[in-house]
Amino acid sequence: xxxxxxxxxxxxxxxxxLASPGMTLLDxxxxxxxxxxxxxxxxxxxxxxxxxxxxxxxxxxxxxxAPEVEGRRVETIEGMAQGGQLHPLQQKFLEHxxxxxxxxxxxxxxxxxxxxDANPDPTETEARYWLAGNLCRCTGYDKIxxxxxxxAAELRQERTA
Amino acid sequence: MSETLDKxxxxxxxxxxxxxxxxxxxxxxxxxxxxxxxxGQLVGKILRSxxxxxxxxxxxxxxxxxxxxxxxxxxxxxxxxxxSEVLEGGEQASNLRDLSLNVMARxxxxxxxxxxxxxxxxxSEAADEALARIKVTYEVLPHVLDVExxxxxxAPLLHAHLFTEGLEAKATAPxxxxxxxxxxxxxxxxxxxxxxVTVEGRYTTQAVHQGYIEPHATVAAWAEDGRCExxxxxxxxxxxxxxxxxxxxxxxxxxxxxxxxxxxxFGGKTTVYLEPVALALSRAxxxxxxxxxxxxxxxxATGPTSGSVMHVKLGASADGTITSAHVDLKFQAGxxxxxxxxxxxxxxxxxxxxxxxxxxxxxxxxxxxxxxxYRAPGAPIAAFAVESAMxxxxxxxxxxxxxxxxxxxxxxxxxxxxxxxxQNIGYLETLAAIRDSEHYKSPLGPNQGRGVAVGFWFNVGGxxxxxxxxxxxxxxxxxxxxxxxxxxxxxMAMMAAETLGVPVDRVRPIIGDTASIGYSMLTGGxxxxxxxxxxxxxxxxxxxxxxxxxxxxxxxxxxDHVVWRMGQAECTDPAKPDKKPMxxxxxxxxxxxxxxxxxxxxxxxAQGAGPGFGVHLCxxxxxxxxxxxxxxxxxxxxxxGKAIHxxxxxxxxxxxxxxxxxxxxNEAYIFDRQGLMENPGFLDYRMPVASDLPMLDxxxxxxxxxxxxFGAKGVGEVPIVPPLAAVANALRGAIGVRIPHLPLSPxxxxxxxxxxxx
Amino acid sequence: MARVTLGSECWPFTNGQSxxxxxxxxxxxxxxxxxxxxxxLGAFADKRMAFAIDGVIHQDAWFSAVGxxxxxxxIPKIGGG
Lengths: 161, 758, 81
Ligand code: FES
Ligand code: FES
Prior knowledge:
The complex is a heterotrimer of chains A (161), B (758) and C (81).
Chain A: E1 4-10, E2 13-19, H1 25-32, E3 51-54, E4 57-60, E5 73-75, H2 88-95, H3 105-118, H4 124-130, H5 142-160
Helix pairs in contact in A: 2-5
Chain B: H1 3-6, H2 22-27, E1 42-48, E2 54-60, H3 62-65, E3 70-74, E4 86-87, E5 94-95, H4 96-103, E6 108-109, E7 115-121, H5 124-133, E8 135-140, H6 147-151, E9 177-185, H7 188-194, E10 197-205, E11 208-209, E12 217-222, E13 228-232, H8 237-248, E14 255-259, H9 275-285, E15 289-292, H10 295-301, E16 304-305, E17 308-316, E18 322-334, H11 341-348, E19 356-365, H12 379-397, H13 401-407, H14 427-435, H15 438-441, E20 448-457, E21 462-470, E22 476-480, H16 488-500, E23 507-511, H17 528-555, E24 562-565, E25 568-571, E26 582-583, H18 584-589, H19 591-594, E27 599-606, E28 612-622, E29 629-639, H20 646-665, E30 696-701, H21 723-735, H22 746-757
Parallel strand pairs in B: 1-15, 13-14, 18-19, 22-23, 29-30
Antiparallel strand pairs in B: 1-7, 2-6, 2-8, 3-7, 4-5, 9-19, 10-17, 11-16, 12-13, 12-15, 17-18, 20-28, 21-22, 21-27, 24-25, 25-26, 28-29
Helix pairs in contact in B: 8-9, 11-12, 12-21, 16-17, 20-21
Chain C: E1 2-6, H1 11-14, E2 19-22, H2 27-37, H3 41-48, E3 49-53, E4 56-58, E5 71-76
Parallel strand pairs in C: 1-5
Antiparallel strand pairs in C: 1-2, 3-4, 3-5
The complex binds FE2/S2 (inorganic) cluster (2 copies).
């Protein structure tokens, strides 16, 4: 059972690790690279707690094999705040109390950012369907959706300003 | 009544500041159960029973021990064989022997997923291989899953020594019925005979899981000197400490438990599954051991709440006065006694003033995972039956469902069905809030229905400790012993800041480990903001008294002449008009010279948590082609006493509604004929996702609780009580027939539509 | 005298009798009086029951005050989720 050497880019920086067979990207991030922001809620692609961006595409990192990220670009929740400044989505989640236990939050933030990158002006229904892969058991989604819609409005304003 | 209630205005309580742990949680820095590691840790894994009911004939671990990297293998023989003893360590008394047998099966595996052995190995692969090589010889026994078959005289027996408690005559033979509860008032039979209108129905619900997104996780170390360190995600670090100490037979002071951030609990993390196992593996291997459950483990081996079979009969006079009620509740307890049927019996009729009733409850063991608490344990199940029956009664009487409930509502001075006399309740106000809402008056569209249901929970107080430590710059750290599941740190900081008269961002709330703060009961029963909040306020008041005493000395005035206002000491002695107010920061800066650090700790056993009532209104739409049900509008009103942080109160209500809607429409444990759970994953155990729900409107009614400094009542339990029936009643309105069985999944709805068409 | 009512869980000790007038200033007095009348009931009530004094639930609270005209209702201890 030999391990595979993997070189990839995580949040803009080069990262290297040894992947054992069957290791997922989620395992690599959490256990090899010490990035525990992405969470494992199910390990089967059903909860979205492990959401990260892979080459600009939203993926469940529990479904990606670690060697697959060789030479590719991974972005995680740890890279969302820039220069000590929270991303507007992070700020709006706090202002709207869009988290209770917060376990789903990293995944929801990554997924929400992917939504707003792709669609800066989503309807509530579009936001709800986009985020349907991210389970939250605490909030009933109400405040999460409000936070996302509010962040979208703010980002649109920033863009036109 | 405490002084603070009479304060003209509150500056912080009732506002919506950003939570103090927020930045950590939106950046991924917050460390949950599985996010912590110890140097040199091993991977722990658990072997689980593949059978629903089986005698464990032998366990051969020799081949597994030979796997390279395997450092320890343990079975029940590595734990003390404990005697039956009721343990008060948790919130609800639990039996120590059952607790330990649930952690590791001894002679029998009692459900599919029951732990039978555990390994610790250097790698996950080695641990898996070792599990595969442990040879357990089982003698498979007949099993029983559902509550009524389990009560039958010829049912397979789970426990040879279980005799029904609570019968008039002592049980002479063992059975699966652990306990009967009973509560009777007046002459129910006579009143039924005289009733002008009666309704009657049989209702069933399935076992459902709390569904917290974070699986259980722990890392534990047993040092050479016998000192133990445990890091785990639970609803109470002190609960974990007590249970580990008792299950392993070690001293409380030898265990230090650090609470991780907790990724949801809802009652499901009020007991231990992994911690004693990780400690035993650590002792056997000499290394720290980390165990993280898979989602499948969570479903198969941790507590769901009960499935049930219920019977409700109501009798009323033509004007809508309910004159008699009969409620019979049969609850699955899972592998060991202790379903929440007792609380279900007490809450079943708690919203109604009825002169004659009988309530009977049955606690029944079954070959399913031992149930654990789930938000207002038992109450939503009973409310599903009673509130469905109430809806039928309103229809039969031709009465508005809220008017019927108002007519029979408990109010201040009413003797509750469970005994005591209600005081300071806000139930009528909550009913009125829904009755007068725009939602209740709005029209319905085609294929839509509207349902109303109400719910009750006692709320509890209990033991809590809080410390307030003032820094040299006048900022404050508040330490409590209660894990923060839903934002309680924010309310602790707010109550401390309000009391001290400082801005909330000058207060940092933290949660201490079991060695750094006094004992606190676990976070549950909606007790933290009430009871721990009371300890925080009292500790802050103690700090203020200390500050006033020091200032009185500085000014050479009597203590009475120093008042604390808006974060500073003010002199009211007319003889000393020159004394300028001294701020907390100024006093803190000279604390060394005035008596040392400024700090206070309060431990208390809070009494008088005010009961809570909720009234829910649900609109849903049915797709007649598929039977699919969509909730289109929902409003939940609740008496919350006083909302400390209204956004988190709304969040608690919305979260409870969402869980209740899932319970009503989709969620259920499904077993095959062998008694194996068929849907132990989120794909097949379907919880609500964002696209399943509308915005969830809330109305916070505030009838203050005089026992709390700011009037707070428990909030988190009540909102899951009404939704099951609110949804079912709305569906009844939409399709014209009653489906008395949960979940109301599309095939069930289609079948009901078809039967109606025939 | 406080009016004390026992929930059905206690009835095996009292042969079904549920209502008593008891001279008591605290919960502990109530427990002691019950145990004097029905040996074993005191320990049982202490471990398993909560005391609702004039509608307010007291759990594990020996020194909670009972007034001369108080209504004291023994109900099973309450937990929660
Ligand atoms: S952990 Fe990847 S989707 Fe749940
Ligand atoms: S905040 Fe707890 S799961 Fe979303």
